[in-house]
Amino acid sequence: MSERNFQKYYMRVKRANVKENDDDSSQKVSKNKSCINKESHLCSISDTLEHQIGIETVEQTSETESEPDSIIVHMGADISRSTANSIPLKSKLIDWAQKYNIPNNATSDLLKLLQNYVGEDLPLDARTLLHTARVVNLKEVMPGQYYHFGLQQAIVHILSSQQNYFKNINVLEINVNVDGLPLSKSSSSQVYPILISIVGEIKCVAMVGLYHGYDKPKNSNEFLYNFMQDAVKLTYNGLEANGKHFQVKIKAIICDAPAKSFVKCIRGHTGYSSCSKCYIRGSFKDKMYFREIDNLVLRTDEQFRAKNDEDHHTGYSILEEIPNLDMINSFPLDYMHLVCLGMVKKILYLLCFGTPQTKIPHAKVTAISQSLLNLSSNIPIEFNRKPRSLSDLKRWKATEFRQVLFYTGPIIFKKHLSPDRYLNFLCLHVAFSILSSQRHSSLLPYATELLKFFVKTFQQLYGITNTSHNVHNLLHIADDVKLHGPIDNFSAFEFENFLQSILKSLRKNEKPLQQIVKRYSEKIERLENRQASTNLPLLKHEHRNGPLIENCDLNAQQFKAVSFEKFTLKLVLQIIAAF
Questions:
Q1: Is 371 helix (H, G, I), strand (E, B) or coil?
Q2: pTM to 2 decimals?
Q3: CA pair distance 416, 244, nearest whole angstrom
Q4: pLDDT tens-digit readout, 225-243
Q5: Crossing angle for the helix pair 37-52 and 22-31, nearest 10 degrees?
Q6: Angle between helices 419-435 and 409-416 (to 10 degrees)
Q7: Which domain of life does this protein belong to (predicted)?
Q8: Are 97 and 129 in contact (CB under 8 A)?
């Protein structure tokens, strides 16, 4: 590895970190006076690298939640800079390589360069440093391959990383997610991960298994077989972890409509008998639509297992073998796909790109876009994204549609939509504000009636043929809230964040399944060796730039952000107006 390439990987870290002040820079230079010519430069780099890796953090803004900071300090903890510097260089290198997804050959070359300039004993190969698995045993699942991490291992990983939270919990309720993820825009390469989380305040996702192929698995039962075996065993026997016994229950399987029809072996969302909650039969006029609103006959677990509606089923699902899994109620409707990427997106598309009967004038579309952009500077950092123009609507993400539903929509649409369309949207907004709140659970009947009124007026305003599978299922989501709690308890948002980390773990097109398995195993190995801090509040982004109040210790630690359970306070260069 040339000096130039070495500097490239080093500068990736340096640019992301807060710049050191001039005094610190002079100290680093003086510390390495003994080095001359090229060796002098390498000594300086290695010393700086040892000083910076894992101490200062990178501020990230993305669709997904950023990874935990390398060093996070609890407000009550007495942690000095010398303590941070006492962390072994080997541990800092592991964090650095994983955080920035450094290729193994670059990490190996860095290790070899550091051998002569640091006192600590370091391995010469990145695979030894990161404990990379040498062999990945894959199972053939047509038309691709599958790797099984194990349900018990996934649960134990979550328990180990959050030991304090689970001290007083004896029953683990598991949410499961199955969804497809394309790996490339230029090919049909795709993965289908099986993900889990444990129901509760701690949002931590682990991977049970992973399929890769150039088409989805042909047989869902073959794909889910190992997961089903693990689920049956753990449901009957429970598991031992952290010195105590836990009971295990599969609480919910959360999927979008195509994935749900795949794992349950039922008709897809374009079928006549596609509703997974009731016996409504759709009508077809250019596209499938569902007319009825009242007097819907609900499906039951017993009827599903008896296959009494033959047109609804396409086969037998192996998931029926999991004890206490209700094949109707254990498959709640996910509002990320149903409402954010479904209903809200549909309304905006009808307004912007619909038929002459549904769309609004271009001048109003422009005015709405400008209003969204005007709000951008007033959006706090708790939101993953700032509002964008409707000209970018086809590239909007789920969080942006959620922002319109809960926050910006009622403000923006009031001036630009007709009263009847604005009232229609407000019904959706108020209903889901209720469904997302534990505090307002007593208003569930009102939310149910609001959604019925929304569907009825939607048919009148936008046409009955636009009453798609998603629109119809709004009539059922309140029932899922009664069983599972607020909609965020069974949404796919936390799993969607994890899917993005899978994409980031790919370094080349060759052998994607093996790459993902190795990168994920490396992270698990690292996390199991240190317990994640759940103490709040957390101080982040240490700096040394002041200003300090009078009589303050000049050596006191300074930070740029403090995170509480549901919000963050952060130093910025400008005053942000209240939203």
A1: helix
A2: 0.79
A3: 59
A4: 999 999 999 999 999 998 8
A5: 130
A6: 170
A7: Eukaryota
A8: yes
